Amino acid sequence: MTGAVSRAGPVHDMADADRAAGRFAHRWGLHVGETMQFSNGYYAELLAPDGSRATEVLVDPRTGAVQPEFGPAMMWNTAYGMMSARSRPGTVAIGPAQAVRIADRWLGEHRRALHAAEPERFPGYYTLHTLRDGHVVGMLSVNATTGTVWYHTWHGRFLRMQEHPGGA
After folding, report:
1. For residue range 31-81, what is the model confidence (pLDDT) as tens digits?
2. Distance in angstroms (rounded) separating the CA atoms of residues 7 and 21
3. What pLDDT score does 82 carry?
4. In Å, what is the CA distance from 103 to each residue of 109, 116, 121, 131, 144?
5. Which position among 63, 76, 100, 127 has the lowest Cβ density within 10 Å, counted as fewest Cβ atoms?
């Protein structure tokens, strides 16, 4: 899936972003779980038919281009990322609770006012919303094998989120 891009035309709102992500997801037998709007564009989680999280994509509001998200979705995703053809999903060395501890430790050192929400498991890594006073402000990912943290700097300011019924 890495490098795949789908264009849908300008995206004016969450409904447009959701439709663009849905068309992209359909090509891979996936569906949209969560859609988020940030000041720099849209983000969507793509779910497998069984409801498990498969990968993350970005939707460009100017062009409607949909592509795998930078960073963990491309580099760490053991099912849909760059390593998927060369590797099999490995043993997860880090569990969800440990991913939160790692994320909170990293945030305490680099973004003191933030803390991590519950982790969302993707093949090979976790993505966690970052919170300030209980409100989503961004996200980061934790590699499920090494514990490496990747802060998502490209989103910009969080604006809003939409969950889909039946999402994982």
Report:
1. 999 999 999 999 999 999 999 999 999 999 999 999 999 899 999 999 998
2. 10
3. 80
4. 10, 6, 14, 11, 12
5. 63
Average pLDDT of the chain is 90
Distance CA 51, CA 154 (A): 27
Instruction: Kindly report the number of other CB atoms within 10 A of residue 80's CB atom.
Output: 24
In this structure, what token pair is assigned to residue 125?
A: 């890594």
Q: pLDDT tens digits for 20-35?
A: 999 999 999 999 999 9
DSSP 3-state assignment of 21?
Answer: helix
CA contacts within 13 A on the Cβ side of 98: 11
Q: pLDDT (tens digit, 9 = 90+) per residue, 101-118?
A: 999 999 999 999 999 999
Output the six-digit token pair for 97. 């609770």
3-state secondary structure at position 138: strand
**Length of the chain in residues, anyone?**
168
Amino acid at the residue 94: I
DSSP 41-100: EEEEEEE-TTS-EEEEEEE-TTT--EEEPTTHHHHT-TTTSTTTTT-------S-HHHHH
Q: Is residue 71 within 8 Å of residue 124, measured between CB atoms? A: no
